[in-house]
């Protein structure tokens, strides 16, 4: 299993490098002048030329990509100018390995920006995934068990109605009623566990987490319901009943084990893509996570930040896939890794 | 009557209410069975063989099925039992073996675990004790290295081994009634014979009553004491195997016998299939259910076959123990002159 995981990680790293290359090529294929955007609106042509040189934008794309990859391994300095370092070391920004780049727009290394944003998105994703799994799976099981009844139709119908509302509507709705009108919760703003403790952290994440979870709720209810029903129709369920097991044991031990396996895949991938940022939810609640960073850096043509986000988000997805595959092998004895 | 026999099924009806109407999957089925004896239930797919047996197991509880009649087992009417009472009998007094052992075993649990579960649900014993019992049982059904095989998963077993494991699971609580639902259909021929031998051996050992559901008349000839031929949810012929297979009196039974291939005979002689398909069990017409497919119905005077359902009555041969549901006045003569030459001799003369 470890050899398998190691091989998957190596393939994942190569995939990530290919991902950055594609992002580089796409960005430089666009008509925008990178140096101009990095320098700012009031820059003269000379200043732009200096910026271009300092950030390495004057070099060919493949060379810039090579520098980026090298920076990932060994770290970089911005600007990479040995003479300037001698005369004015205070102008040099160090970027330790794995260096994702330097954002001239923000005057910070990309590592710093992502280091600030990632905990917000990760917290949000964790709270959301716990909420949607807890409610989605249990409601799905209930709906499957009472298939065809009013409760089943109610659960499926209600979650579908919620699903039909856009995320920004749900977010604003919660802010308007739960926070402003009823005053049940304080206006949410991200507080890290280190700053405010777990209770405070969770309290502030409840509304945005709920908003995000509701987006996924309907599909998880429906999938759980379908998988449980499918599993309950299997021959081995009849065998389990023929043995004289209680219906509770048949459901929880025999039916759910098989039904929830495909959900592991879904959850892994959905969770991983959320780690790369929940753009709308973060906007609505003004959370400075990866989603907001993505939007801001795209609007500012902040290439280094965008590439950094692509690498980190891509790494999350690749890692989640490896973990899901390993989980599968642990759950299903028929699956052999290799 | 209910005390004379170990199992006595009396006018059993299993009806399913669907959006299109009531499906009469089993309608007025009666038979009896004693300990140590085997009843072979034969019929095409959808004739109600499995549905009626699942009703005995109480497996329709909690579904839309409406079940009526009586199923007396050792003096208790199973159909009057509450679901928890029925659950306690299931797997203990009545056990079942299924057609496809690969899909009937849970792919995620070891075979030993699944058999031990069947034992522990009815016996308050430790895991260790259950394991010992399961290993004994695996050995009894002829699984080599049972101690090691206990921890194997179903996909690591061969088809025959899986069915042996299913038999071990069914017999671990020493049930008095075993329902085998096409236990050899998914297996190849050499393994089929082994499994049937095993069942016979274990039946002698445990004095079990067996209901053998099959569409293979060879299995019935080999295993059963009594044969029950089902068509469209009803018994159409019922009696001792020697009677039913050698002096069949119902055209449907003739059809089943004629459609068995004879490997020893001249291969140029065609098999005689039964024309048409089984009828829908929804809104059945009033006459004999087999009439649309029956090539002999013209020999019955008038349109009796179309208008009146024949009763299950003693036929002209074999006395009161051999019941048949047919209007034909002289079935024995027709069988001898028109049908018998199509029937594989090994089938009719096995007994």
Order of helices and strands of chain A: HHHHEHEEEHHHHHHHHHH
Let me know the CATH homologous superfamily of the largest domain in chain B: P-loop containing nucleotide triphosphate hydrolases
| Mean pLDDT across every amino acid position of chain A | 88
Helix content of chain B: 25-40%
Task: Give the class of chain A from helix and strand content and strand pairing.
Answer: mainly alpha
Q: Please tally the β strands of chain A and state the result.
A: 4
Q: Could you give the order of strands across the largest sheet of chain B? A: 6-7-8-3-9-10-12-11
CATH hierarchy class name of the largest domain in chain B: Alpha Beta
Which structural class fits the helix and strand makeup of chain B? alpha/beta
The residue ranges of chain A in which pLDDT falls below 50 over 5 or more consecutive positions are none
**Mean pLDDT reading of chain B:** 87
Q: Do you know the CATH topology of the largest domain in chain A?
A: MetI-like fold
State the CATH architecture of the largest domain in chain B. 3-Layer(aba) Sandwich
Instruction: Report the principal-axis shape of chain A.
Output: globular
Provide the domain count of chain B: 2
Most extensive interface between two protein chains, with residue counts: A-B, 21 and 28 residues
Head-to-tail CA distance between termini of chain B:
29 Å
Task: List the helices and strands of chain B in order.
Answer: EEEHEEHEHHHHHEHEHEEHHHEEHH
Strand content of chain A: under 5%
């Amino acid at each position: 299993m470890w050899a398998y995981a190691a091989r998957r990680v190596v393939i994942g790293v190569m995939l990530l490098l290919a991902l950055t290359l594609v992002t580089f090529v796409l960005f430089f294929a666009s008509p925008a002048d990178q140096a101009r955007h990095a320098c700012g609106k009031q820059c003269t042509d000379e200043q732009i030329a200096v910026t271009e040189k300092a950030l390495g934008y004057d070099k060919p794309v493949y060379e810039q990509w090579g520098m980026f990859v090298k920076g990932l391994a060994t770290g970089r300095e911005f600007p990479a100018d040995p003479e300037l370092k001698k005369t004015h070391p205070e102008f040099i920004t160090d970027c330790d390995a794995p260096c994702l780049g330097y954002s001239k727009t923000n005057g910070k290394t990309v590592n710093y920006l992502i280091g600030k944003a990632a905990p917000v998105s990760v917290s949000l994703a964790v709270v959301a995934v716990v909420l949607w799994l807890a409610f989605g799976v249990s409601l799905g099981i209930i709906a499957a068990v009472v298939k065809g009844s009013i409760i089943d139709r109610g659960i499926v119908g209600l979650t579908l109605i919620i699903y039909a509302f856009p995320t920004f509507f749900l977010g604003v709705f919660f802010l308007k009623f739960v926070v402003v009108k009823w005053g049940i919760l304080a206006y949410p703003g991200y507080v890290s566990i280190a700053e405010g403790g777990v209770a405070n952290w969770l309290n502030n994440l409840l509304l945005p987490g709920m908003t995000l979870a509701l987006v996924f709720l309907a599909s998880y209810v429906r999938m759980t319901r379908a998988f449980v029903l499918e599993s309950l129709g299997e021959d081995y369920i009849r065998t389990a009943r023929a043995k004289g097991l209680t219906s509770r044991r048949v459901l929880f031990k025999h039916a759910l084990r098989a039904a929830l396996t495909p959900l592991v895949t879904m959850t892994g991938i959905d969770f991983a893509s959320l780690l790369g940022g929940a753009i709308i939810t973060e906007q609505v609640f003004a959370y400075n996570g990866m989603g907001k960073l993505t939007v801001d850096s795209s609007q500012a043509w902040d290439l280094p930040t965008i590439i950094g986000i692509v690498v980190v988000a891509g790494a999350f997805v690749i890692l989640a896939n490896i973990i899901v595959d390993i989980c599968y092998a642990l759950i299903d004895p028929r699956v052999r890794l290799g | 009557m209910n005390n004379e026999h170990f199992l006595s099924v009396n006018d059993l009806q299993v009806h399913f209410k669907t959006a299109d109407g009531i499906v009469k999957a089993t309608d007025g089925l009666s038979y009896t069975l004693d300990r140590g004896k085997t009843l072979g239930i034969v019929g095409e797919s959808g004739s109600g063989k499995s549905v009626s047996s699942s009703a005995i197991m109480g497996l329709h509880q909690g579904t839309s099925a409406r079940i009526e009649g009586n199923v007396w087992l050792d003096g208790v009417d199973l159909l009057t039992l509450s679901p928890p009472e029925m659950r306690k009998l299931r797997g203990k007094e009545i056990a079942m073996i299924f057609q496809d052992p690969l899909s009937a075993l849970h792919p995620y649990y070891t075979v030993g675990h699944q058999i031990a579960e069947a034992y522990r649900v009815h016996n308050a014993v430790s895991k260790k004790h259950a394991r010992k019992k399961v290993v004994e049982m695996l050995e009894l059904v002829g699984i080599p290295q049972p101690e090691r095989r206990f921890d194997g998963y179903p996909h690591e077993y061969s088809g025959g081994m899986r069915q042996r494991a299913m038999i071990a699971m069914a017999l671990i609580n020493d049930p008095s009634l075993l329902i085998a639902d096409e236990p050899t259909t998914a297996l190849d021929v050499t393994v089929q014979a082994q499994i049937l031998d095993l069942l016979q051996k274990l039946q002698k050992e445990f004095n079990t009553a067996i209901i053998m559901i099959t569409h293979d008349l060879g299995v019935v000839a080999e295993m059963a004491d009594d044969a029950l031929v089902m068509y469209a949810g009803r018994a159409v012929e019922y009696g001792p195997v020697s009677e039913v297979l050698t002096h069949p009196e119902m055209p449907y039974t003739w059809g089943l016998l004629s459609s068995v291939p004879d490997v020893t005979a001249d291969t140029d002689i065609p098999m005689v299939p039964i024309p048409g398909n089984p009828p829908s069990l929804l809104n059945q017409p009033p006459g004999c259910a087999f009439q649309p497919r029956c090539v002999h119905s013209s020999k019955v005077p008038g349109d009796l076959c179309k208008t009146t359902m024949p009763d299950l009555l003693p036929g002209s041969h074999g006395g009161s123990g051999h019941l048949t549901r047919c209007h034909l006045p002289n079935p024995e003569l027709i069988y001898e002159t028109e049908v018998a030459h199509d029937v594989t001799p090994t089938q009719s003369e096995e007994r």
